[in-house]
Amino acid sequence: MKLLIAGCLFAVVFSLQAKDDSIAYFGELRYNHVSLHVPIVGIMPYKEPPKGKSHFQFRYDDKKRIVEIVNHTFGRFRQHPLTHLGAYRVSIDYENGQEIRRYFDVKNRPMLNIRGVHKEVFSVDEFGFKTQLDFYDVEGNAKESLWHISRYQWKKQGNRVLESRLNLVGEAQNLSPYFAFKNTAIEYDNNHRPYRTYNLNSEAQVTNSEFGVAYYQDEYNDLGQHIKYSYFDKNNKPAVNPFGFSYATKRYGSMGKLKNVDRFDLNEQFMPRQAIAPVKPASSKDRENIRQVSLNYIIALQSLNPELMANTLHKDLAKSMVRIGPDGKKTLRKISYQRMLHNAKNWNKTGTRFPPTMNNQVTTFDVYHNMAAVKLTSDNWVEYLHLIKIDGRWQVKDLVWDHNNI
């Protein structure tokens, strides 16, 4: 009996140990701005579940394949659509020569990921090489990503992987909307990391793109962090990318978090980049401009001045009110930017919509960087305004209002 109990206890401990071995924790995913052909790899591993630290949890099957990724990351300023998951959980199934990834939110509901799709189906050949990727929505319908790609196709050419991309009607698509590489070739280094990405012509030869770059090159440190990317023409000479720099280096903090990206020109000279400015109290000039712009909205209506209204409102204005119908039902009434210009030209033609001397009061609740929240009380209305500052100019972006019945 003692031997039986001991054997059972050993089996339980062994089972728990096996379950623990199927879980791994990583501080980051290896950076990838190359292709979805590049496998997901965790870097900066933790031995135990890190408490209070941003991380990814990987679960593996008995063949050491990833079957689930749980995303416990936070505080990300920028997420690249090829690196990041854009979902809380990813399930990965392997069946009938396919690798199927599905994306779920924190309540385990199906959702669209950072690429704008729910299901990603990779076709895999008998040697484990991915030959194709198709995108689908939550209902299982074929779907284009946010980059207008519905299908990736890959094939081997020597030590390179050739890639093409198509939309739903079979039209070729660029690598991304902001990087006009057509067909591309991926070259991996000795550690199976994407090393060079080439732009190809119709004969699958490396050629300069429309902005003079034929390939870009990635470098990594011993921790697997992406530390440098450089641009070259077809003659292997340094080139300038569409954003105006030739190469960039990355610096990380002690916990592995990206601290800064430094850019350099063709002469290897550092190129200063505008950083996020520290929060400063709003200046008296800004507060006065906010107050005046808020008043101009009413003044433009009173004085039949559509030009002033056009300067006061942002073209993407969202103006609305909660209307109560005769049946007591509440609905949202919306008024467009164009309608407000029309109102500024016609609404007060009789001169009887406003008192001769208006009683307008502006209360500025808060100003933060390029945003402001304001309450405007007039003889006619009570209104809450959101203002934004673009190119040094404050404008009303959002507005909700109701009649002033006081």
Net shape: elongated
What is the CA-CA span between the terminal residues?
Answer: 86 Å
Report the strand count.
Answer: 23
Helix content: 10-25%
Main sheet overview: 17 strands, antiparallel
Structural class: mainly beta
Number of helices: 4
Share in β-strands: 35-45%
Q: Would you list the SSEs in sequence order as H and E?
A: HEEEEEEEEEEEEEEEEEHHEEHEEEE
Q: Tell me the radius of gyration.
A: 29 Å
| Mean pLDDT figure | 90
Residue windows where pLDDT falls under 50 for at least 5 positions = 1-19
What is the number of domains?
Answer: 2
Summarize the structure.
This protein has helices spanning 2-21, 284-302, 306-312, 337-346, and strands at 23-29, 42-46, 55-60, 66-72, 89-95, 98-104, 119-124, 130-136, 151-157, 160-166, 184-188, 194-199, 215-220, 226-232, 247-252, 258-264, 270-271, 313-324, 330-335, 361-368, 371-377, 381-390, 393-403. By secondary structure, it is mainly beta.
